[in-house]
# Entry
Amino acid sequence: MRRILCSIALAAICATTTPAIAGGPLVVEDDGKPALWSTRRPVVLNPDRGSLGKITNPEALLTHAIEQWSGVTTSALSMEIGNSLPRDYEDLSENEFNALVTKNDGTNPILFDASGRVFREIFGPKSGVLAIAGPSLLQNDGRIVKGYAIFNGAEANAADQETFRAVVTHEIGHFVNLDHSQVNGLWLDRVSPAVPGTPPLSDITTMFPVLVRSKEPTHPMATLHLDDCRSLSTLYPTSSFRNAPQIVGTVYDFDGQRPLQGINVVARNAADPFADAVSAVSGATAPASADAEERGAYRLSGLTPGAEYSVYIEEVFRGFVQGSRVGPLDPPLDIDPTQMVAFLEFHNGPNEAGRNPPDSPLERQTVSLGSSETRRLDFRFNGVLARVESVAPNSSSFRESQRITLRGVNFGSTAAVNVEGPSTRALEQLSQVNMQTVEGLIPAGLVPGSYRFRVVTPKGIGLSGSVTYQVTEPPPTIQETTPDVLQNNEVQLLTIVGENLFGTQSGSLLGTGLPDIALEVAQRVSSDRVVLSVPAGALPGEYRAQVTNTAGTSPPAPTIVFLVELAPALNETVEPTSAKNRRDTQVKVFGQNLAGTTAVDLVLDDQVVELLILSTSLSEVRVTVPGGLKPGVYTVRLTNSMTSTTGPATFQVKKGGGGGGGCSGAPPIGAPGIQDLPFLWLGVVFLIALRGCALLSRVLPFRAGLAAGWPNSRLPSASKRPARFPAGF
# Structure
């Protein structure tokens, strides 16, 4: 079994969830399946024996909540109150609370924390958290075997009876693994093109993340809304609910390819838009390894046959984070930064598309379903940020300005157009023609290359898109290079003078018999001057420069660049410092100004050994010391393109040994012949097997213990794993 509860810090007042759909499952497995209670028998709740602060009979509130959830006729789940817990659990520490609600003892504890100590332990003093609840123990197949709820008596006065009736009903929703829904509650103090006015308090869902204030005799959140009933029935459906009408689909971005996860999809009955409303968040139950389409998928179940529904998409409220989270993303997907919760668009039937026209976000086509019909409605989101879809003309020379026309979508109240590429400038003389068209001037002097456009509106900086604009130039030519002598001991700057150099992308130095040296652009000064960086450690020699711009590559420069190096200097040590003389050894020689090394020798008295050079760099030369040398300590002598230096580096050659490292054509006298080897190897294998058993006897218990305690293990024993959060007010 796996433990769900863990020690946490929750936001005050609001409930805390794991990834789930709006009004859907609170706990979702990695494979995308919700955790579920068994419906074969009633789920039994076990209240403690105490009071809830000044509320002396909290079990009556629990009875009401159970009647609400068990009375959903389209749900197969039922609950009942069983035996009370052995005592009134008060003044529990956080660890004691965690142990109680995760112990696999067949109980589902409902705790009335009269003093509020548990809440102070977990959330700190004056947190304002009223309750938390949820599944606490799962089998490996995802079946819930234990749940809990705990209520904060320190926040409960006798006058709060109706408020806590709503709190208990909400928490029992979490107990059966329901998450939150924002379908109606958000619109008590906000407006939306999709919501016809202000919903009555009676249509606020029980699973709305925030406890609303109400002066009604019965708190509206203490009575289930149709959305709550549908959410419960989606998890625990009767056969009739399985056959009820439903809408399924995927929310895509405007390209029709990329799914959008975390979008709230809502269906409202035109004849009864607040009472008959249902919502789901796209990609909420997508498995951890979900493919692209699953991350944008949604399902609206239990719709009324023959009713005319408007279906639309909106953001999840930006303030619903952590404890009040709705859907799989925390924080929610913020598409429109100018609004806390933005209406996005209606589904527009056959006209549904990623741009307007033909798909205006405010145009809708209602949907009516048959008694057991499943209808697929995919959204292609128009977006709220501006995007460019075409530019005309699409190129100009860097030497002159060019008036252009941009066409796209969401250009309302365009404030600026950024031209972004090798350099960034603003489009000049900007003029907005309409919501889909702006005009402006590409300024002269842009660095040649490829550019994209971002249209800036009050909604934010627009998408760059795939539309490009080319600033062009002719192929480059070089007239001269300065300076004509560069040292190779550090990065040097080389100035190129010529024509059409403003768009220079790279350069190189070309030498006869020498490898080309790649140069990077350090500064584009003007169209006739560019500065390139020459890397340290290049081989000394005579070179001619060459540059490449957006149109092509120049011929080699008419002038020569001389790369020179300073006199070499060696460090005291080499690597390795010694080797036996029985075989060749690769050795690293360290120092300064070694890139142009032409010779490396080992010197011992009057003996000079020339070494094979494998590679050179500014500070290291790799050489091969041949085998068979006379033992002794040799001094290293190195020659580069300027001069030679000897020492202080030394290398010791040692006399090589035979022994086990050598080879022989016949076995030594007295050694076993080939016919004896099977018996010898049998003994070796036997010894290895004995050693292996001893080793495994030490290693395997440790590994088994590690596996048994690993959070995600699926062992048959009662292994447990923590989840992110329980949930509560």
